[in-house]
Amino acid sequence: MPLHHANRLLETAGRIILGKERELRLALACLVARGHLLIEDVPGVGKTTLAHVLARLIGLQFQRIQFTSDLLPADILGVSIFDRATSAFRFHPGPVFAQLILADEINRATPKTQSALLEAMEERQVTADGETLALPEPFFVIATQNPAHQIGTFPLPESQLDRFLLRIRLGYPDRAAERALLMGEDRRELLERQPAVASPAALLELQHAAQRLHVSAALIDYVQALLGATRNDPELVSGLSPRAGLGLLAAARAWALLDGRDHVLPEDVQTLFPHVAAHRLHLAGDGRPVPPATLVRMMQAVAVR
Amino acid sequence: MSRIRAWLAVALGRSHPADGLASTAQAATLDRRQAVWLLAAAVLAVAPHGLWLPAWVHALCLLLLGWRGLIVWQGTRPPPTLLLLAVALAAAVGVRLEFGHFFGKDPGVALLALLLGLKLLEARRARDIRAAVLLCLFLQLAVFLEDQSLAVAALAVPGTLTALSALIALSDPAGRAREHLRTAGLLLVHGLPFLLVFFVLFPRVQGPLWGLPADAFSARTGLSETMSPGSISELGTSGAIAFRAAFAGPPPPPAQRYWRGPILTDFDGRTWSAAPATEAETPFHAPTGRRLDYVLTLEAHNRRWLLALDYPGAAGPAVRFTSDHRALSLRPVQSRSRFTLNAYPDARIGLDESPAVLAAATRLPADSNPRSRELAARLAAGASSHAEILARVIAHMRGARLTYTLRPPLLDRHAADRFLFDTQRGFCEHFASAFAVLMRAAGVPTRVVTGYQGGEVNPVDGYLVVRQSDAHAWAEVWLDGRGWLRVDPTALAAPERIEDGLAAALAAEGELPFMLQADMDWLRGARHRWEALSNTWNQYVLGYNPERQRELLSRLGTAGDSAAKLAGLLAGLSAALLLVLYAWAVWQRRTTDPVQRAWERFCARMARAGLGRESWEGPLAYGERLAAALPEQAHALRAVCADYARLRYGAAGTRDPLRALEQQMNEIRLP
After folding, report:
1. Which of B24, B183, B649 to mutate to test the interface with A (most CBs of A within 10 A)?
2. Is the pTM higher than 0.90?
3. A114: phi > 0 → left, psi -120 to 50 → alpha, else beta; which?
4. Which of A7, A38, B259, B305 places its Cα 20 to 30 Å from the Cα of B522?
């Protein structure tokens, strides 16, 4: 997707989701970097709308899965049913066979069901009845988590959290944006009238361009220093994994691309670092997720050279 | 450097990475790598003490360390506190029983070693482990209280390295073992120049610092002031070094290497002992003929005699001379010492010997050695002079089929008789003693001289090395007009002893010191090299005493006479070293990329206007900040930063000439 498509997409989306330009850009960067997105926030701030907007504007097949405690893996992946006409089992694909999936309140489901989705995310394919079925391309999962109500939930373990490239929070809109929201039309209707401004093919093109974006040795040095800082930090249980490091670089590339540059700057890395690191790092003392202030302190301890 | 900085921060207590450990650091769950470092450090610190500690202390220590090892490798449960307490109590009681008290070096070291083992078993927190590492280092230091040889010093290096690595692993549990070792090595290397400065300049203490009077000087091997059959052959099997000599010119031939020790005049029929002699600051003979200059490095023997080469000439103020032509030190030699001496091998000694000495040298107990007296009378009959008697006795002994052996039969009464007529097998003391008895019986003044004969030149460093196995006894006969003449009766039976040393003379006996055996050539080569190395260590490191320090300092142009001056010099040099290290660190951080250098210059220039770049600030963010601070140049500032960012982080093909960037930078005017 040539860059102007992306810009138009962001501009259009910004008219529907008000005051969240940065979050929209992060979500698109995540999509361009071929990662999956975790949104952690209270209900009603527009998580679902964000997913809808992205699917609609790029023209992606969209599926929403509401995770509940009685959801089974087959409810996601699909099920084989005996077909009388052919006297054989026939596989009925589940909702996971879509290009953009909104996994709502993922921490409500049992670990078994969670892992069925997360494995599909990682492998980009589903194995059912000994048969392997590839998932559509592009394949993008937006999972939401409600941090406030933890009773009766199954928090994702660290190894599963690692599969989400970025974690963002939407938060409440600011005063002006909220006012516009309250005064304007229904967002859902607005969205339904909105034609796609980009295409899946254009997205794939953008993904390829991001992969090829130049990264200098100096920037690799910086990324390494940053990773090293998380690994040597005494406050943390453990540092960022090499997978997280690769993710950080991929996300920074996508961010630089959306910014219209042909190379990655330390600022790109700094922008993405909190979103890559926040759900992967935990404090040594009580195992709480690392607070943003710690991440900032960590970044400020690493010199840009 | 950054690793060291992080480590220092930990050491100075500014951050506490080990606190993470604290929550989990049960004795059993100390990180395996840390535990291995710690155990290695403990073993390296305790093991050398095995040479001095009572066996049970050492065994108990290693047992405790082994238990710690089991906890690490097998996951065995740590012992209950009560048991540890009981072991600690038992160990303390054991040490008390072993030494009788808790004071002094040996019980102190024993207690420390035991406590280290116990500490490791009960260590639960990072602080405990740091204390244990400190204990390891202290034990390592304590080895030097016993022995300051090169081997011990060499062993201290891996010991210290491991202890430091353990400490570093404690603060950096995520690092790899090799990195820990590297950092420790780097720290040690950084300390090296300081070590040199302090070694050279720190005020030296006379004598061994830890020479506690109770136990330092007992049980030294070497010559004594008496000689009875068997007393010298005892030394024959010892390969220990007695002294070394470095000659200014070529060393004298083996047949002239007689190193003079105690002179034995009084004889009670079995034992020879020294007669009192007067002391003076100059020799009692007029030195004539050739002169050999040499430096003698004497191992401690706790006696005053110096084993000077025959016959010593006037030397420095530290040397005295006796009327029987020996050289003495002012004080007993209690540590390895150097003496600058000279020798006149052709001098005549005792030309005008006092009648009292001559009378003492002819005294013989009336009831001893009847057969020898009879023989002497026979040999002396009809002789016109003492010289003729001497010639006859020599001729007799040469023809008497006497055998030179390191394992002579035991002789008790009438030793000379039994040796000359019955057993006919003896070591040098038998020969010297029998010869002196014969001569005295014939009325010729004769005395026994003990000392060392021979020595071996180490081909590596050219030092002449004399061992305890070179201990020897010979005789001196006084002839009117010729003074005291050296006669070596051993040479009559075994001339090769004098020419080629003990090994050649006793090759058939097979009971030589292992290292003297001739077929161990490669081993001898290795030993020569090792001994030359130890000698260098002894001469330059251990032998660096107050006099040599003064000498060196005056040669360097600074008089080290006042303590204040010395302290000032020390502080100044240390500060200079710190500066050099700091400069080196800064130099290391300097960058070689011209774009980066231009950028750093630019940032430094902006910093002068109070607009310095934060170390973590990226170029574009910095550009925005600068633009906000200097709005009238906002455009140029943004351009500079963006161009730098592209040059530094962009693909190689998009690199603009550096000069354009520098020009842009120079066009920025500071407010």
Report:
1. B649
2. no
3. alpha
4. B259
